[in-house]
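Hi P.,

Sorry for the delay on this. The queue was packed all week, but I finally got your sequence through. Input first:
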Amino acid sequence: MNKIEHIGIAVRDLKITGDLYEQLLNTNVYKMEEVTGEAVKTAFLQAGPNKIELLEATSADSPIAKFIDKKGEGIHHIAFEVNDIKAEMARLKAKGFVLLSDEPKPGADNKLVCFVHPKSAGGVLVELVQEGYNA
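Then the structure:
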């Protein structure tokens, strides 16, 4: 794993929380997009080398909506950048980590993604991210 790529924060209202984080971090949302496969709208902010991804559910049965219903708004996941997501998935699986998918999926910000179940990662939802859908 190369670095922390971003921290994901589940929010009820992307506009309200986006405005809040723009003021907090003294920077602007630089990208917004919808990931229909995950039923989520995202907004990205960057302060120095650090990125924050705000996540708003687009349906009541999406993973983000379920997370907010159970735990409220707040930190949802931590994402780590990897060079070869399939190799990293195989390495983690061989070490006993539970992955939430067998193959990486297209995610926000032109990334391939895979999540590691929080029960096998000390209670933290971990996201692996690799640059580029076709990588």
